[in-house]
Design a protein that fits this description.
With 662 residues, the chain is mainly alpha-helical. Among the domains are: 30 residues; 63 residues, no CATH class; 147 residues, Lysozyme (Orthogonal Bundle), CATH 1.10.530. The protein has 36 helices and no strands. It starts with a helix and ends with a helix.
Length: 662
C-alpha cells in the first residue's frame, strides 16, 4: 500500500504532465494576431479569385482563440457551397449556431443550413426555420422562413389523400404574413403560385394581397387576372395603377373617376394620391383634371387635390387658394406648406407685419416640417429689410444652427457674410470616404474593416445604413452608396457636426479630379459642377433617363452633338456619353454655354440646365421679384425650383464639409 508521500509524488507528476500537455496544445494552436490576419486576408483574396478550395483550407487555419474564428467558419461554409459540397457547408453553418448561438451570424447560418436541407432533410429544415421565427421574429430571415414553412407543409401533405383544412390554414397564414410584410420580396411570386394551388377557397382580401404583389414585381397580366376576383370597391386603386402600367389608359381614367367618387373610403390615402397623380398625368390639362376630380371626389384625398391646385394656379391666386386649403384642413399634412405659402405671399406684398405674425405661428406650430427652414430664413430677410440687426442676425444664425445642411442655411450664410454672389468659393480640399465611425481599438468591426471583409460587415451591421453605404462604396457602387447615406442622414436629428465621418458618404467627392480639370477648361466653378453631377446622376456614369438624358451630367445626345460641334469635342455616338471623361467634358462646356446665354448668372444657369433656357427667360420676364431668393421661390415648375435648391444645397455642403466654412 502506497504511503502518503508516494501518493503525493504521483499526483504531482500527473499534474506536471497535464500542465505540459495543456501547454503543448495551446502552443500548437497559438497563432500571433498578425499571422491570423495574414491567413484571413489571403483566404479572402483566394475567395475573390474563385479559388474556393484553397480559401476553405486557409480559413480552417484560423486559430480557435481568434475572435475571427466564427467569421472564418462562415466563410468556409460559403466556400463549400460554391464547390457544391452541401454536406460540408451545412456542417460549418451548424458549427456557428451551435457553438456561437448569440453571434450576429448565427441566424444567417441557421437559415442557410435550413435552405440546404429542404430537399434532403425537410423535417430538420422545418425545425431550423421555426427556430429562426422564434428567436429572430423581426428579421428578413424570419420572413423568408415563413415562406419555407408554408412550402414544407404543403409538400408534406400534397401527396397524401388526407390534407387537413387546419394545415391549409396554417399554410395560408405563413403565405399571408409574408406577402403582407414583403409584397415584392424574393419569394412573393412563388407564394402566389403555391397559394393558388391549394385546394381551398381564397378570400377576396387574399386575392387583392396577391394582386398587389404581382403588380409590384411587374406581373401586370397576372395582377389583372387576380383583381377580377375582387370587388371594385376594394380593388379600384390597384386596378388604376395596374391598368396604367398595362397602358390601358381609358380604363385607368374611368376607374379613377369612379373610385374617387364612390369608394375612396375603402383604400389607403397614399394609394389615392398615386391614383390622382396618374389621372392628372394622363390628362391634357393638369388644372382641368384637378378641378374635375375636386368636383367628384369625396373627402379622402381632397386636401391633396387642393394642394395640387394651389401649385398650378397663377401667382395672383395662390394666396387665396392656400388660405382656403389651410382653413379647410388646418391640421392636415399639407397645412405647413400652405401656411408657408401664405407667409411668402405677404412678403411679396411687403405686408411685413402680417408676414411676421404668420411666420411666428408657423415656427411655433410646424417647427419640424420641411418648410420650417424656409420660414425661418425669410423671417431673417424681413427683419433685414426692416434694419433690425439683432433679429435678422438671430434668425439667420438659427437657420444654420438648426438646419445646418439645408439650402436655407446656405442662403443665410450668404446674407450674414454679405456675399452677393451665389458662389462662396471655388476651392475645396477633398477628403476620402472612410469607415463612418471611430470605434474603440481592437474592436472586431475595425478589424473586419482593416481586413476588407465587406460581405461579413454587411451581414453583422445590417441595421446600420451608414455602414451599408460604406460597404457599397467599397464595392464601387457609388450611386447606391450615396443614396443610402442620404436617406439615412435625413432620419438623423439633430444633425451631427460637419466633422462627422458619415457626411462624406452623403457628399462624396467622386470623379472630382476630372470635374476640376474640365470645369477649369470651361471656366466653371468646380464644387458647383460636383454638386450638379451629384443631383443629376447620383454619380452613376451609366445613368439614363426615360427621355434619353445620359451619363454623369445627364446630357441629351442632341445637345451633346451641338456642344461637340461648337467646341470640337469629337462626339459622334451617344454611347460615348457613358464614358465619365467625355460626359464631364461635354457637360461642363454645355453649362458654360448656358451661362454665357444668361449673362453669367449661376442661379439662372442651374435653373436653365434643368428647365431649359427658353423657360428660364420666360420666367424672368413674367415673374415679379426683388432678388435671387424671391425669384427661386417663384419658379413655376416645382421640379426646377426643387432642383435649384438641391444643387445649391449640395454646393453649400461641399463647401461646408471640405473647406472649413460653417
Amino acid at each position: 500500500m502506497w504511503d502518503l508521500v508516494t501518493k503525493k509524488r504521483v499526483i504531482a507528476g500527473v499534474s506536471v504532465f497535464a500542465v505540459i500537455l495543456a501547454a503543448g496544445i495551446v502552443l500548437s494552436v497559438y497563432q500571433p494576431a498578425s499571422k491570423t490576419d495574414e491567413i484571413y486576408t489571403q483566404a479572402l483574396t483566394d475567395y475573390e479569385k474563385g479559388d474556393y478550395q484553397n480559401s476553405y483550407y486557409l480559413f480552417s487555419k484560423v486559430t480557435l482563440f481568434s475572435n475571427l474564428k466564427p467569421y472564418a467558419i462562415y466563410h468556409q461554409a460559403e466556400c463549400a457551397r460554391m464547390l457544391d459540397d452541401d454536406k460540408s457547408a451545412i456542417k460549418q453553418y451548424q458549427l456557428i449556431f451551435n457553438n456561437y448561438p448569440k453571434h450576429k451570424l448565427a441566424v444567417k447560418a441557421r437559415y442557410m443550413a435550413a435552405q440546404l436541407l429542404v430537399e434532403t432533410k425537410p423535417k430538420l429544415a422545418e425545425k431550423y426555420f421555426k427556430k429562426i421565427i422564434e428567436i429572430a421574429p423581426n428579421t428578413d430571415y424570419a420572413l423568408a422562413s415563413e415562406y419555407y414553412c408554408g412550402l414544407l407543409l404543403k409538400n408534406k401533405y400534397s401527396d397524401n389523400n388526407i390534407f387537413p383544412m387546419s394545415v391549409k390554414s396554417d399554410i395560408e397564414n405563413y403565405f399571408r404574413h409574408y406577402l403582407s410584410e414583403a409584397p415584392s420580396g424574393r419569394w412573393a411570386m412563388e407564394i402566389v403560385k403555391n397559394w393558388l394551388e391549394l385546394d381551398k377557397e381564397i378570400s377576396t382580401d387574399d386575392y387583392l394581397l396577391m394582386a398587389k404583389s404581382c403588380f409590384m414585381v411587374g406581373e401586370y397580366e397576372k395582377a389583372k387576372e387576380l383583381l377580377s376576383h375582387v370587388q371594385m370597391s376594394e380593388s379600384w386603386a390597384l386596378d388604376v395603377k395596374n391598368s396604367n402600367a398595362l397602358k390601358n389608359y381609358p380604363r385607368a381614367r374611368a376607374l379613377a373617376e369612379t373610385g374617387l367618387k364612390k369608394y375612396s373610403q375603402y383604400v389607403e390615402e397614399k394609394d389615392i394620391f398615386e391614383v390622382i397623380d396618374i389621372y392628372v398625368n394622363l390628362a391634357k390639362s393638369n388644372q382641368d383634371a384637378i378641378n374635375k376630380l375636386l368636383t367628384i371626389s369625396s373627402s379622402k384625398g381632397k386636401d391633396y387635390l387642393l394642394n395640387l391646385k394651389c401649385q398650378n394656379v397663377s401667382e395672383d391666386n395662390k394666396e387665396s387658394c392656400y388660405n382656403y386649403l389651410y382653413i379647410k384642413y388646418p391640421n392636415g399634412q399639407f397645412s405647413a406648406d400652405a401656411l408657408s405659402n401664405i407667409f411668402f405671399s405677404k412678403i411679396k406684398k411687403k405686408d411685413y407685419e402680417s408676414a411676421i405674425k404668420i411666420g411666428q405661428d408657423h415656427l411655433n406650430k410646424f417647427s419640424d416640417t420641411n418648410s420650417a427652414p424656409m420660414v425661418m430664413f425669410w423671417m431673417g430677410k424681413i427683419y433685414e429689410r426692416l434694419n433690425d440687426y439683432t433679429q435678422y442676425n438671430n434668425y439667420y444664425r438659427n437657420v444654420i444652427l438648426k438646419y445646418p445642411d439645408s439650402y436655407y442655411a446656405y442662403r443665410a450664410y450668404l446674407r450674414l457674410n454679405r456675399i452677393n454672389s451665389p458662389l462662396i468659393t471655388g476651392y475645396i480640399n477633398p477628403e476620402p470616404v472612410v469607415y463612418p465611425y471611430k470605434y474603440a481599438r481592437n474592436n472586431i468591426i475595425v478589424k473586419l474593416v482593416n481586413l476588407h471583409d465587406y460581405e461579413i460587415l454587411n451581414e453583422i451591421c445590417d441595421d446600420d445604413e451608414f455602414i451599408r453605404s460604406w460597404v457599397l462604396y467599397q464595392k464601387g457602387d457609388y450611386s447606391h452608396s450615396m443614396l443610402v447615406a442620404r436617406d439615412a442622414m435625413e432620419q438623423v436629428n439633430p444633425k451631427p457636426d460637419k466633422y462627422d465621418l458619415r457626411w462624406r458618404l452623403v457628399y462624396p467627392v467622386n470623379y472630382y479630379d476630372d470635374i476640376q480639370k474640365y470645369a477649369a477648361l470651361a471656366g466653371n466653378n468646380s464644387p458647383l459642377m460636383l454638386s450638379l453631377v451629384r443631383e443629376e446622376s447620383y454619380f452613376d456614369p451609366l445613368a439614363q433617363s426615360v427621355v434619353g438624358a445620359t451619363g454623369l451630367m445627364q446630357l441629351m445626345p442632341a445637345t451633346a452633338y451641338e456642344i461637340s460641334a461648337k467646341y470640337g469635342l469629337g462626339i459622334t455616338s451617344p454611347d460615348v456619353l457613358f464614358n465619365p471623361h467625355v460626359n464631364l467634358k461635354a457637360g461642363n462646356y454645355y453649362y458654360a454655354f448656358v451661362k454665357s446665354m444668361l449673362a453669367g448668372y449661376d442661379v439662372s444657369s442651374v435653373a436653365a440646365y434643368n428647365g431649359g433656357i427658353g423657360s428660364l427667360q420666360r420666367w424672368k420676364n413674367s415673374l415679379y421679384y426683388n432678388d435671387t431668393d424671391e425669384f427661386v421661390e417663384q419658379i413655376p415648375y416645382p421640379e426646377t425650383k426643387n432642383y435649384v435648391k438641391k444643387v445649391f444645397r449640395s454646393y453649400w455642403n461641399y463647401i461646408r464639409l471640405y473647406s472649413g466654412n460653417e
